[in-house]
Amino acid sequence: MSALTPRVLSTPAAEATIDLLRDEHGPLMFHQSGGCCDGSSPMCFTQGEFRVGASDVWLGQIHGCDFFMSAAQFAYWQHTQLTVDVTRGRGASFSLEIPLGVRFLIRSRLFTQEEARHMAPIYDGEQYLTRPPEV
After folding, report:
1. Disulfide check for 116: which of 51, 54, 58, 111 has CB 3.0–4.6 Å away?
2. Which InterPro entries does this chain map to (predicted)?
């Protein structure tokens, strides 16, 4: 295995929703806080609308969108590969997809030992802001 193991992926259905949102709102980003509202559901924002910092972790990109998670949440999820998907229904969040009658959600699975040996790097939000990783 020579390629780096991605920490976050997206389904075709999520990518189709991202395309709709990008057409309307421009560049997008995701953040998963584990806090209020929909708890650990990923939230989609216009790029830069959610301010990231040292208490956030950049996990990679999905369909051209940066994906961040709170560091506290990452402590629990660091051994899992996340897949952003979409389902019908209204979530209780401020995420951009809510008016479409859908909501983003996370599906996860544990990394294999082989995948864990080749993990893609992570960056805290401040590192990301000073020199965004090349993806």
Report:
1. 111
2. DUF779 (IPR008497)
Asked, for residue 62, whether it belongs to a domain, the answer is yes
Number of domain units in the chain: 1
In a domain, 96, yes or no: yes
Indicate whether 135 belongs to any domain.
no
CA 42 to chain centre: 6
> pLDDT for 55-74, tens place per residue?
999 999 999 999 999 999 99
The answer to whether the beta carbons of residues 21 and 57 sit under 8 Å apart is no
**What is the span of the domain harbouring residue 94?**
8-130
Would you place residue 1 in the very low, low, confident or very high pLDDT band (cuts 50, 70, 90)? very low
Which alpha helices (H) appear in 31-130, and where do they start and end? 71-77, 113-116, 125-130
Give the pLDDT confidence of 71-116 residue by residue, as tens digits. 999 999 999 999 999 999 877 678 999 999 999 999 999 999 999 9
**Closest of 118, 117, 123 to residue 135, by C-alpha:** 123
State whether the Cα torsion 49-22-41-108 is positive or negative.
negative
Q: Which residue has the tokens 């993806």?
A: 135
